[in-house]
């Protein structure tokens, strides 16, 4: 039964795996056939060879970028949830802070990022700050929306049972907001790597972002591409981790229309 | 003004002896005699007493004016009313979600106001929707009231587990609400209200969202469960048959604003079943009840001259 479920799952993922393999083959074949210069599009095989040659260096940079992304994500999660709780529990904050947070998402965060370097220097904290800049808003907004989506009838029922504000928050608001929180966290996980990369571009000596930038300055296409591939893998990895936690936390809930 | 003292005593007794239905101490004398007719003896204490109730939403005509009624211990009373007349508002007043603009509502022997009574776990409110928490199992949904009353979760769960079979819910303890049918969900919701409220159950059209077949089954189920527990129940419905089948008394609210409730005593023997609906006595009661509804619906002009 379980085995069938698993093989069913594999079968469901088959098309995308085949498609990726097809793209990889097309990349390799195209680069060979049209003799594209290695600094424009390197052959996939060269990228993989470069990755293998430099794996020690790459894994060090990978760990650093991952650390920045995870640290920023964690801090965003804490402060995003706190902001959502504040918005939820204060009528004034709901009217002032919430609209501000929503509209602030239209600010081009990239333009703000250099300020983080001015404020926090070239060490890890400026990168973490850029990650926070990218990931705070989706977590705060989606969690606040999750609180708002709580069924008011359940809240009233709890009141008739004599539940105070704190009990209602704990037993009704928080569980209701969890799906929204995870939606925000998934979005944040996917873009956190981009934030860390940007932070490294703006200044720094470590991380995959710095590695790709330096490689591109040296016109080493295969090194740039190996860094980019690893960065995407990191984004996917973070997303999948959050997805797994979400599935575990919300395993038993299901929409009626599902 | 000995209210704080009584409060303390009530809270303590609630902790010591939660609204556990197995003990039949609250049962009125004579309830164990089979086939007694429904109306209770007058000396029974009032569990709910409404005096001079007045309420209306701002900018609208008032819904209630100088309304008086009361429920005695162990009574099953239905309020029959047309939609939009303020049935749900009445329940919100009784459960402390709204505050009356005039008059008093007293609950239990201590005569607590609704807000205080719900804090003490005296009222069990069952809303129209089942309002089950989708993230909790049947068991954990049902324990909610006990849990809020401060009972340790393990003890609360143990108590609920003992009650499940009697409510036709055996084997569902670890299921989630989305795995249950509408009727089963209402059973869980009922159990939750039963455990949340020791003295008075307020049921707000609990079966109105169910299909006709399920509804009949649920009415018979409620009759059977109520026979076991004999909690005082105030039941809101717009279904005449349902009101007659379940109740000791039916209160009809037909005119708006509601200033009085016309009363019909349903002196049918218990235990009852749906077969009663074919009886001559039942049909006669139904005729009288429809008459009461008609009289109210013709307008409150006749009622206006009524002496208090």
Structural class determined from secondary elements of chain B = alpha/beta
Order of helices and strands of chain A: HHHHHHHHHH
Query: Total number of helical segments of chain B?
Result: 11
Termini Cα gap of chain B: 29 Å
CATH superfamily placement of the largest domain in chain B: P-loop containing nucleotide triphosphate hydrolases
Q: State the helical fraction of chain A.
A: over 70%
Molecular structure report:
Chain A is an all-alpha fold and 258 residues long. Chain A has one domain (48-249): MetI-like (MetI-like fold, Orthogonal Bundle). Chain A is built from 10 helices and no strands. Chain A has helices at residues 2-33, 44-53, 55-89, 91-104, 109-120, 124-148, 152-160, 165-201, 208-217, 221-249. Chain A starts with a helix and ends in a 9-residue tail after the last helix. The relative contact order of chain A is 0.13. Chain B has 308 residues and is of the alpha/beta class. Chain B has 2 domains: 43-122 and 199-308, 3-Layer(aba) Sandwich (Rossmann fold); 132-197, no CATH class. In chain B, 36% of the residues lie in helices and 18% in strands. Chain B has 11 helices and 9 strands. In chain B, the strands form 2 sheets. Chain B has a 6-stranded mixed sheet, with helices on both faces. In chain B, helix 8 links the parallel strand 6 (200-204) and strand 7. The interface between A and B is medium-sized, with 22 and 25 residues.
What can be said about this structure in brief?
The complex is a heterodimer of chains A (258) and B (308). Chain A has 258 residues and is mostly helical. Chain A is built from 10 helices and no strands.
List the helices and strands and how they pair.
The complex is a heterodimer of chains A (258) and B (308).
Chain A: H1 2-33, H2 44-53, H3 55-89, H4 91-104, H5 109-120, H6 124-148, H7 152-160, H8 165-201, H9 208-217, H10 221-249
Helix pairs in contact in A: 2-10, 3-4, 3-6, 3-8, 3-10, 4-6, 5-6, 6-8, 7-8, 8-9, 8-10, 9-10
Chain B: H1 3-16, E1 46-55, E2 64-72, E3 76-81, H2 87-94, E4 102-107, H3 114-119, E5 123-126, H4 138-142, H5 144-148, H6 153-163, H7 182-196, E6 200-204, H8 212-229, E7 232-237, H9 240-246, E8 249-253, E9 262-265, H10 280-297, H11 301-304
Helix pairs in contact in B: 9-10
